[in-house]
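Exercise 3.2. Students should predict the tertiary structure of the chain below and write it as structure tokens, then compare their answer with the key that follows.

Predict this chain's 3D structure.
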Amino acid sequence: MESERLRQLKQQKQLILDHLDWINQEIDRESIATMPSKSPRSNRLAEAIPEDREVASSLEIESSPSSKVASDLYQELGPDAKNAAAETRRGCLIISAVAFTALAALGAWVIYYY
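Answer key:
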């Protein structure tokens, strides 16, 4: 036989669970309504190719040379990123050579005058 207090506690528990279910439904409804239409991490390649442009079939892509496909992508995606690593390496070597030459000149000047 259940006591009156136990029955009331079970009834309150059920009310709280019903209320939590309602809150979860409202949260889901609001989150669906406020979701962006595009995902924030969209594909840059998909953005680069306009929707009205015909996309080549997979057979055409496989039969075309990879350098042609890559050059098309570089033109559509933005600045010349093809030689970025080589240009960066060349710039770093030039800066380090100038710094080393300046240090050597300073060392020679100190040795000569002191």
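Discussion points: The chain has five helices and no strands. The CA atoms of residues 99 and 105 lie 10 Å apart.
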